[in-house]
Design a protein that fits this description.
The chain is mainly beta and 377 residues long. The protein has helices at 62-69, 76-80, 152-160, 167-172; strands at residues 24-25, 53-55, 97-103, 106-113, 116-118, 121-123, 132-134, 164-165, 175-179, 185-186, 191-195, 204-215, 222-237, 242-249, 253-254, 258-261, 282-287, 299-302, 315-320, 325-326, 336-337, 342-352, 357-364, 373-375. Strands 8, 9, 11, 12, 13, 14 and 16 form a seven-stranded antiparallel sheet that branches. It has a six-stranded antiparallel beta barrel with strand order 17-18-23-22-19-24. It has a five-stranded antiparallel sheet with strand order 1-2-3-4-5, with no helix packed on it. It starts with 23 loop residues before the first strand and ends with a strand.
């Protein structure tokens, strides 16, 4: 299993109400001259009701924008390949105008920023239409201001604090043996004593508690331990035992709770949605912050990890088996007829471990449950 996920305080994109100006337009774009670029055929992917123009506002996400234009939002990259003059389709900012035009039956997208088209391949004036003129632009916007693929605040807690660890990590982690007041519990401001090896130079730790075991519903294999974050602590004396002071807590710390190094790096915004190179199917083995069912913008745990070839950004279909139906004209065992599984929605993998992964529910038509099927698109 890889090391404990490292993350930091992200720049959360707060939704802002749309401004009064028009954000959508279906005006004719015939005055924009784009060069059609042959390649991947995505001509059938444009939604019938997709706008010709859309002005990005703060609070938008790349997934939501993709869904405005495409039937399959994960094919955003393929559509942008029709205009390779655009360096990075993931760096889109509030105020940008996204335009789409059909050229020789192929959809082409461009971005207008500050009134100037960025990256568009414009036909040279007076030419025969075969020569293109590229107009490079200097981008000065901060990457932190670019709209994220998915809402950063939705997955922040999972990148800041691990939710699943393997047995080796659990056994090797330092653990709480008591506090300076001889109390059963510890909270913010209390000093605690910790036994075990702390990392040299590591001053901040998260305190965690084991919740339960994740088990593969098909093979019965143990996949890892679910844990919950209960507090943060800072090293005061790295002796044996070490002394730490609790700096914040969501629950009281108990003897036996264990510690893991805590780091907060910048949360990435440019997850790249794509269809996975995955053979076979998986299962939903855990629901985060839910008991029996979950839905859009919530997190599920899959029994697909690095060893299964799963990657961050993979889009997977969640399906549910349907009980066989009864044929009223047939008697005996033959009266039961198997029917296809039903798609519940789509999830995107945003963090992987050796045996499992976290996935955010991007779309859902029905509630998702533990043991639902996970399959390629």
């Amino acid at each position: 299993m890889p090391g404990i996920p490292q993350a930091s305080d992200p720049k959360v994109v707060e939704p802002v109400a749309p401004q009064a100006e028009t954000r959508f337009s279906n005006l004719d774009n015939s005055d924009l001259s784009y060069a059609a670029v042959t390649g991947i055929d995505v001509s059938g992917e444009l939604r019938d009701d997709s706008p010709t123009d859309y002005t990005v506002v703060r609070g938008d996400t790349l997934w939501a924008l993709s869904g405005r234009f495409l039937r399959s939002p994960w094919k955003w990259n393929e559509l942008w390949k029709q205009n390779p003059a655009i360096d990075d389709p993931h760096l889109i900012y509030p105020g940008d105008k996204i335009s789409v035009a059909m050229v020789n039956g192929v959809p082409s997208l461009s971005i207008s920023r500050g009134g100037a088209v960025i990256g568009a391949m414009a036909t040279t004036a007076g030419g025969d239409g075969d020569t293109v003129r590229l107009s490079p632009e200097i981008r000065t916007e901060s990457l932190d201001e670019a709209i994220p693929t998915i809402p950063g605040n939705t997955i922040q807690q999972f990148l800041n604090y691990p939710q699943i660890v393997d047995l080796g990590t659990l056994n090797d982690a330092p653990y709480v043996i008591g506090n300076s007041d001889n109390r059963l519990t510890s909270a913010t401001g209390h000093e605690i004593y910790v036994k075990g090896q702390l990392r040299r130079g590591q001053n901040q730790y998260g305190i965690f508690r084991r919740v339960g075991m994740l088990t593969d519903p098909v093979s019965g294999e143990e996949l890892g331990y679910e844990v919950e974050h209960v507090a943060d602590a800072m090293v005061r004396n790295a002796g044996s035992p070490a002394t730490l002071v609790i700096t914040s807590n969501s629950k009281e710390t108990l003897t036996g709770d264990f510690l893991l190094p805590l780091r907060r790096d910048q949360i990435r915004h440019n997850y790249i949605p794509r269809a996975p190179a995955l053979s076979g199917e998986g299962r939903v083995v855990g629901l985060v912050d839910a008991i029996s069912q979950t839905g859009r913008n919530q997190v599920v745990v899959l029994n697909l990890g690095n060893r299964s070839g799963i990657q961050v950004g993979d889009i997977l279909a969640i399906k549910r088996n349907v009980d066989p139906i009864t044929d009223p004209r047939v008697a005996g065992d033959m009266m039961k007829i198997a029917v296809p599984s039903v798609r519940n929605g789509l999830v995107m993998v945003f963090q992987t471990f050796e045996k499992v992964s976290y996935a955010l529910v991007m779309e859902s038509s029905r509630s998702m449950h533990i043991n639902d099927l996970v399959d390629s698109l």
